Amino acid sequence: MEKVNQHLLEALQPAWRTALCGPAGSAQYAAAQTEMKQSRVKPLPVFLLATAWHATCLAWRRKPEWVIAGSGLTAPIAWLAARCTGGRAVVYLHGLDIIAPSRAYQWLWLFFIRRCDLALVNSANTATLAQSRGVPPANMHVLHPGTDLPALDAEAARDFRQRNSFGQRPLLLSVGRLTQRKGLAEFVEKSLPGIASRHPDVLLVVIGDEASDALHARPGSERERILAAARIHGVERNLRFLGRCDDETLGAAYQAANLHVFPVLDLPGDVEGFGMVALESAAHGLQTVAFAVGGVPDAVMDGQTGILIGPGNYVALADAVTRQLAQARESGNVAACREFAAGKAWPVFGERLRSLLDSHRV
After folding, report:
1. What is the pTM for the complete model shown?
2. What phi, psi does 350 have (nearest 5°)?
């Protein structure tokens, strides 16, 4: 979400003069010419009140054409600042900010989300959720998040394998914060044993740390649940945690892996809005095997950048992974993945955003 908002701001700057109200620390990601007002994030009510004050004051002084909320959480602020000065309000919706299981949020926040002049959504699934909550379809447009398209570096991939003593083992890669929704504990329990029976040296490499501040975090350690599942089902040697990695290491991991796995769960009240890591994987030429859950189908082109499996079908998921591991990571597959990712690169995101704003000018 933070990355999307950073690129959203950058996309505006060729066409508009910008100002930003954001959390403390966000100034380092904004251009020098951007006027900044920052507020501490915790406690959340203080952040919302301070940001509302800053946004309203900025709007009175600068008379903006557009006031954009980076998520549904700040939609009331954007609506208020826009209405105070004759501007127009836009909200970018990510999925969870539509279905957040709070009566106060559903009653008050959705009231303002519905009344924004333009609602941008990150996937077709988020569009469906927004429409089901009363957001007018005429004011809503899908704007997929983008990705960088890095140069491929075979040497970096080899170094990654050597540095971590992976040798030539087939690598399955999982990227993202460790939450229940990512489904790794269930994948290790229900799919990994079958995969390992046919590829005994397979290794599931997990990049990401605990998500204790996630909206739907459950008590205890998700990492320990994944490890417990591996021990119980005899695949502990097929699992490796690397924790949080820098961008360079992550890029090398994408290129070193044989396949990206994305076994997201279909949980009530907790939705995968888009599936950014699947798109990043494609940008590095790596295919994804995933459950067709939430917005994931918008990030994976079935048969081109990976394989989509019906939600919860762990046998089919294991079979798909096994088939993919039996194939070499061929140049044709790499090219197809990168071609798909190029169509959703950040410059494309920026052009689409500016076009949508232009088309909704009064």
Report:
1. 0.90
2. -65, -45
The torsion region of residue 37 among left (phi > 0), alpha (psi -120 to 50) and beta comes to: beta
User: What average pLDDT does the segment 161-184 reach?
Assistant: 94
Does residue 215 have a pLDDT over 70?
no
Q: How many other β-carbons are positioned within 10 Å of the β-carbon of residue 33?
A: 9
CB atoms under 10 Å from CB of 214, counted, come to: 16
Residue with the two structure tokens 């299981």: 101
CB neighbourhood size of 127 (10 A): 23
Q: What is the mean pLDDT of the chain?
A: 92
For the segment 290-345, what is each residue's pLDDT rounded down to a tens digit?
999 999 999 999 999 999 999 999 999 999 999 999 886 776 689 999 999 999 99
> In terms of DSSP bridges, do strands 19-23 and 35-39 run parallel, antiparallel, or are they unpaired?
parallel
Cβ atoms of 273 and 284 closer than 8 Å: no
What DSSP character marks residue 28?
Answer: G
- Rounded to whole angstroms, the Cα distance separating 59 from 61 reads 5
Give the CA radius of gyration of the chain. 21
The percentage of residues in the chain with a pLDDT greater than 70, rounded to a whole number, is 96
Q: Where are the alpha helices (DSSP H) in 86-233?
A: 96-99, 103-104, 110-115, 124-132, 154-163, 184-190, 192-198, 222-232
Sign, CA dihedral 288-243-224-271, equals negative
The tens digit of pLDDT for each residue in 261-270 reads: 999 998 887 8
